[in-house]
Amino acid sequence: MSQEMSDGDLAAHLAEVAGRILINVRESGLFSAKALGKAGDQTANQFLVHALREVRPEDGLLSEEEKDNPDRLAKSRVWIVDPVDGTREYGEERSDWAVHVGMAVDGEAVLGAVALPGLDLTGTGTGTVLRSDQPRPLPPAPEKLRMVVSRTRPAKEAVAVAERLDAELVPMGSAGAKAMAVILGQADIYLHSGGQYEWDSMAPVAVAQAHGLHCSRIDGSPLVYNQKDVYLPDLLICRKEHAQNVLGLIAEVRIDA
Prior knowledge:
InterPro entries: CysQ/Inositol_MonoPase, Inositol_monophosphatase-like. This protein has 257 residues and is of the alpha/beta class.
């Protein structure tokens, strides 16, 4: 049956099940706080990579927790997953962590699902999954801009741009949670320049683009995936009406620095 699922249904199903697995690992009470992140990461990763190799054996695969396979570079379709985005937040039982399951086709983020297992917006107790193939209308924009930033290491460019915009800073955990916050109306801009990898942004970018948001590098260039070097250090996700202004301010800030 899983072979007959659409790619979108498969991505969402995998992200949701991995999220439930992670909750179960945490609630088992068997791991210290120090060991929990690794246990959760590895357990969820084993589920995701085994499932994808079973149901999409011809596709490439890149996971944060799996040894890189250079064969993916010759593939057009490549699944890119992050079993736990926001390991610290997961261990602290916060809601701002995520599971990323996405697909890049010829380097472009075309499909993704981001599970937020700690954020139960549906009231079902199973968390929330946002999908690129099922976009929802964006909430109305507020009068005062809000920018999500790292709760532990806010990027200096983001802080400087927020000051110029008189935007409220909203500290938050994982990249996926920050990107989804813009979709959910909890923020308007997500600006990051502190270093990331392809698995940190690929699925969130696919979902954000499908919801009509601007997604790019902070110099305005496209985000390209399934590269030999998977380091992809910066990211801008925002409502389209803010994109050109934010990109211009980033350029100013970098010149001033």
